[in-house]
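PROTEIN FOLDING TASK:
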Amino acid sequence: MVPAEKILHAAKEHGAQAIGLSGLITPSLEEMSHIAAEMQRQGFSEPLLIGGATTSRAHTAIKIAPHYQGTVVHVVDASRAVGVVAKLLSAGAAADYRSTIAADQQALREEHAAKTRAPLLPLAAARANAVKVSYAPVKPNKLGVTALGDLDLAVIAKYIDWSPFFQTWDLAGKYPRIFDDARIGEQARQVFADAQAMLASVVTEKWLTARAVCGLFAAERHGDDIELRDGGQLVMTWRGLRQQVTRAEGKANQCLADFVAPEGDFVGAFAVTAGLGIEEKLAEFELAHDDYSAIMLKALADRLAEAATEWLHERVRKEYWGYAASEALSRDELIAEAYQGIRPAPGYPACPDHTVKRDLFRLLDATNHCAMALTESYAMTPAASVSGFYLAHPEARYFAVGKIAADQLEDWAIRNNMSVDEAQRWLAPQL
């Protein structure tokens, strides 16, 4: 996300009538609140539009709108922004529309304040209630980093999960059943046909390049931390976060480190992109004023990145690590994650820490191998990219860390050699 100073300077310089912010990852949420506060401090009155994958109507009302006395409105997707701005600037309708937004946000804040929240345990008590698991780790067939170079998009395309693709077009339904939906089935079939036609061009004309790198390392668990070693040398420490909410009887307070055998284990890491070359093609569509094709290509790049991630994980399980060498899963079973092990990604509920991507990229040399990079807020570029870790434990499952207390924030800050203020910035959604 562009820093607040540049955004607001550009808004003043160009006489903006409205300002729009879009965030793809959770650190962007804090920056949005900061920009709202800066708009208030600098005397702005223009409406502020909030959108992006990590935003929501409730978060906008509770965390961003209170920083700015002007109108702050959540926009579900970019296609609706024009209509929202038209209402916000309409001479006849703006006042009523803004009043409706303000009243709706106040109701959301009151509803949020009235919620009863489960109490948080002290960190020591949460750690005492860790997952108790044991298993015999399988040594990987190939330790160290493996760069796979340019991937075959025709092969990767076979691993696409098409259900999320339809969400890009505000079409809710699971593929292929969505085609039988009486209300949106015809539209879904049309957009899918267009996607297939463009995908064929992407593959045959090489509009995009996909690359991947992975690594498998010896691992040692130390409390909530996982140390990765290569040839006996410490190459990375992955510092985990643990659930602190009071759990029902018999339910553990989980941390991803719980699924690493304390007596010694192995952990993997990966970085994948399918967005190399996309900017050139998007520029062509922009020149032709073809927004539909631009959105379609971005959606396909995202699907290919996820498909490449699925393809790579399968190869790791069956070949590079080899703990599931005889695995023979169908496409639907892969989508349902019927395999052993998980691949938690930074920024997702089980691993909400985005900063670990810095060490992950360094460990895999993702910039050199895949031409991937990180922004100041740890968003990946190209946007159609995925990175994360591999855990092989048979009982490993995804979960949400949820809210954490001040004691874990301070503990995590110390482990990361950060100030508490800096840690608070990165973990704000968990506080």
In short: Residues 291-320 form the longest helix (30 residues). Residues 4-114 form a domain with the Rossmann fold fold (CATH 3.40.50.280). The chain has a mean pLDDT of 92.
